[in-house]
Amino acid sequence: MIDIASGHPKIDGYLDTQYESVRGMSSRFAAAICGHVVRRQSEQGIVGDIAEIGTFEGRFFIALALGLADGEHALGIDLFDWPNAGVLPRMLKHCERGGLSSDRFTAWKAHSGKMSVAEFRAKLKQPQVRFFHIDGEHAYDSLSKDLELAHAVMHPQGVIALDDMLHPGYPTLITAVIDYLKRYPEMVVMCIVDRQDIVAAAKFLICRNDAVALYEQDLMTTFARFHFISGADMLGHFTLVLTPQLGNVDVGWDDPA
């Protein structure tokens, strides 16, 4: 197991003892980094709820929700019908076992593509969402709708995390992201968090361009040994890349000096 931590005691306790026992595909590496972002937000006085589309049995959701500050709430949205009707009871059991009390979260059995912004806002305890994880239906139209929903409720200094970007099984997802970034040029991919190595499916962390400074240098400093120094060109923005296997990788050429 890769030695990586969020720096938040409750999140790290869950990652160390229970994360891998909860069914799901999100990596511990990504959970620790996103947990660190949630902790960083609290330290910077950024207040808001946490939301997730595609909660399944709660693996990633619990890690995020354990980073809540007083008065904040976590909202997990899913149809909770796959692979069977037992997924919601299992999710609730995992939350209890993980130390997430029932008054700190809501499991909302709903289709995110069919809800209005007003319906979503009615489920929030805070006026805005500060961290929004999207891991819903992996199709262009669905991701586009989920991004619009997230955009409408985001804190100005909040972060949207997108799962399974660059995954070979879902090649059209990236086009939905690019189209979203073109619709909202104030938004940028601030960080790419790899799952296993530089060729595995990654998470994109998106925020407003004027909020990048809140996160970028902190992530580079905290997770320096995982920093892929070549970065990534995302529509003209030089994006930070964190990957568990390669670290400060040799990019393949010698210094001509």
From TrEMBL:
Q: What is the lineage of its organism?
A: Bacteria, Pseudomonadati, Pseudomonadota, Alphaproteobacteria, Hyphomicrobiales
What's the superkingdom here?
Bacteria
Q: Know the name of this protein?
A: Class I SAM-dependent methyltransferase
| One Pfam family in the UniProt entry | Methyltransf_24
InterPro entries in UniProt: SAM-dependent_MTases_sf
